[in-house]
Design goal:
Layout lengths: L4 H10 L6 H11 L4 E3 H11 L5 H13 L4 E6 L2 E5 L6 E5 L5 E4 L3 H19 L9 E4 L3
This protein binds zinc ion (ZN).
Length: 142
């Protein structure tokens, strides 16, 4: 993704985030490609480029980005959050061997069909409505 600083600034603003220079640098690093990172990995990434940025500021910004929907969050195991720079509708495949997480996109009609089927099945088993669902597929591969 070819992401300019101007575009990053617009993204911050459109998510209701005041674009301070640190937030701009950080958002640019995170959003320039699709990636799934733990908070600690985000810290390492930002710290490599901007050693002056404090851990607290980075974590606060990260929390803000997730709250405002600039980043998605993904919990593959309970209590462990990945921050996801791809906020388009998508699902995930987790490679059990390598730990790699891959974005999986379904075409629109399949997406609708899968969601409808999940809703139906979930309701049948729990009596509860489902508004949204993201799949995590676990696979083993090289
Ligand atoms: Zn993703």
């Amino acid at each position: 993704m070819d992401l300019s600083y101007q575009k990053t600034k617009e993204l911050l603003e459109s998510h209701g985030i005041r674009p301070t220079s640190q937030r701009l640098e950080m958002a640019h690093l995170l959003l320039e490609k699709h990636q799934h990172l733990f908070a600690e990995e985000v810290f390492q990434l930002v710290n490599t480029h901007f050693p002056h940025a404090s851990r607290a500021t980075i974590f606060n910004n990260l929390k803000l980005f997730a709250e405002k929907g600039l980043l998605g969050t993904l919990e593959l195991k309970s209590g462990v959050t990945h921050f996801d720079s791809n906020t388009n509708t998508h699902h995930h495949a987790l490679n059990e061997n390598s730990g790699e997480i891959v974005d999986i996109e379904l075409n629109q009609s399949l997406e609708k069909t899968v969601l409808a089927e999940l809703k139906r099945s979930y309701f049948e088993k729990t009596g509860k409505e489902l508004d949204q669902a993201k799949l995590v597929i676990t696979l083993r591969g090289k």
